[in-house]
Design the sequence.
């Protein structure tokens, strides 16, 4: 795919799934999808995996469509089923084979950090890695903000408990003893960035939440589109 086709497909996918992401929780809105797609593109180009771009972009578009408050725990399974139920539509719209739809469905199912087992294909690996994000010390703010929003919105925690929740969650997920599963190559591809980020995350505490940051996050919470 040339860059122009990649851009076109990205916009088509965003349009296609846009409405789903008006109902997802605050941490999984369309801006999350844009960033996962942009990570997919970067990962594919860096590794010379352009042939997987098409399926990975479509899977990234679909991966969190059911991440609503009510369905969060099973959103990956719901998404898997949705892709298979909509196979004829997807085949027509994106000129896919039936097998390619299965590859997309599995990538949706296997994107979560809690996934156990072997990935169905490299497309699943790319989407899982892109969802975890390109590690950078700068996006600690982004992670911790999303976790705070999740605690406030989904878990209905108080402001102060949401801060503790976010710090603990980020340290669990990305700190020294991180539990979340990513493809093996992820650690090699981003070794330096991961080490830098880990150092920052290990030192995090609730003072990270400045009054300005909290105010900004609370505004997002009350401003669901
Ligand atoms: Fe998800
Ligand atoms: Fe996601």
Sequence:
């Amino acid at each position: 795919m040339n860059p122009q086709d990649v851009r076109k497909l990205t916009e088509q996918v965003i349009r296609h799934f846009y409405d789903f992401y008006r109902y997802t929780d605050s941490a999984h809105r369309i801006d999350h999808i844009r960033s996962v797609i942009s990570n997919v593109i970067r990962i594919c180009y860096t590794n010379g995996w352009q042939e997987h771009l098409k399926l990975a972009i479509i899977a990234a578009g679909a991966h969190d469509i059911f991440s609503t408050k009510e369905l969060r725990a099973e959103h990956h399974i719901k998404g898997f089923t949705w892709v298979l139920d909509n196979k004829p539509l997807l085949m027509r719209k994106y000129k896919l084979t039936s097998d390619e739809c299965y590859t997309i469905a599995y990538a949706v199912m296997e994107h979560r950090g809690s996934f156990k087992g072997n990935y169905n294909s490299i497309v699943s690996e790319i989407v899982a890695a892109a969802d975890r994000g390109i590690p950078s010390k700068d996006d600690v703010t982004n992670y911790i903000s999303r976790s705070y929003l999740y605690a406030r919105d989904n878990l209905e925690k108080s402001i102060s408990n949401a801060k503790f929740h976010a710090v603990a969650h980020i340290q669990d997920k990305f700190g020294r003893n991180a539990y979340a599963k990513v493809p093996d190559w992820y650690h090699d591809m981003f070794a330096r960035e991961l080490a830098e980020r880990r150092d920052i995350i290990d030192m995090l505490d609730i003072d990270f939440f400045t009054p300005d940051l909290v105010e900004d996050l609370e505004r997002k919470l009350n401003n669901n589109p």
In short: Residues 63-64, 67, 75, 111-112 surround fe (ii) ion (ligand 1) (CB under 6 Å). The chain has a mean pLDDT of 93. Residues 3-132 form a domain with the Hypothetical protein af1432 fold (CATH 1.10.3210.10). Residues 135 and 191 are 9 Å apart (CA to CA).
